[in-house]
Amino acid sequence: MIHQLNDRHAIESQLKFIDGTTEFRPEQIVSLPEKVADFPIIQIENNFAKAAISLYGGHILSFQPVTESEDLLFLSENTIIQSGKAIRGGIPVCWPWFGPHPEHSDLPSHGFVRNRFWSVLSTATTPKGETQIQLRLTDTPETRKLWPHAWELVLDIIVGDTLTVGLITRNRGNEPFTITQALHTYFQVGSIDGVRILGLDRTEYIDKVDSGAQKFQAGGVEITSEVDRIYTNVPPQLIIDDSTWKRQIQVLSKGSSSAVVWNPWSEKAAKFPDLSDDDYLKFVCVETTNAGPDRIQVFPGSEHRLESKIRN
Ligand code: TA6
């Protein structure tokens, strides 16, 4: 599979596919869906940045601009590559529902596309010399059992000095459907106690740590305990201010009016087998979402694009 992918989609000295079962922490690969022999990862390196994307989950694992000594994304050293399980860190794609399924608690949290293999639609170099990758996923008889609709998803990724991630939902059925979704980005930070999220001042949020209470944000968001909040009516640009590493990461969203800020803190982090006990100090999730009341209805033949641009 790796050989065919490189034959069709590699870009000389910019983009290649590697076999994750041998080159991506093989010790952490517990099991893969039986029908695949390897675990393709796209490695990108251009004049602007390095990045890595797993076809499993359509999951961006890494993004490091050439100007940065540290990856902008957090990826757990203990992530478990296991059929049906999502990779911990990077940018999980949560679709067609965010969080637990609204009616059926037995269905997987955050939908079912972050634990499926996506196909490669195209790879290209932009006129600026950035690398563009489009991945695709469509409904199957199996997904229709989970969610009875016909759809196509395209992940439109551009790796440059900015990482642009567009998640395009197309309704290929003959009735409207409603989705909630997230680009559930894990940002790597020097230490969580030196982090402030800027741009959410004077917005309202749903506090999932306090039984979903509706609250009001005053000033920057600081993380001193477990935080799990759905902010509503948020501005397009948020900033992660990391005083430890003396860097700011900008997150520019489109097709979204909500955002999620999450950090499990120590007690909850200890319950995640794919996180080390002190990992909560090293990341904060600032997610570009359609979540909470921000739900999207997609009509037959039409589409919705959720987009997040990330840069330091
Ligand atoms: O986005 C925050 C959240 O919904 C938290 O409630 C927590 O569940 C987190 O996502 C991680 O979820 P996961 O299913 O990836 O373990």
TrEMBL record:
Its EC number is 5.1.3.15. Pfam families: Aldose_epim. PANTHER family: APOSPORY-ASSOCIATED PROTEIN C-RELATED, GLUCOSE-6-PHOSPHATE 1-EPIMERASE. The keyword Repeat does not apply. It comes from the Bacteria. It catalyses: alpha-D-glucose 6-phosphate = beta-D-glucose 6-phosphate. Belongs to the glucose-6-phosphate 1-epimerase family. It is an enzyme of class 5 (isomerase). Keywords: Isomerase. The keyword Isomerase applies. It comes from Roseofilum halophilum BLCC-M91. This is Putative glucose-6-phosphate 1-epimerase.
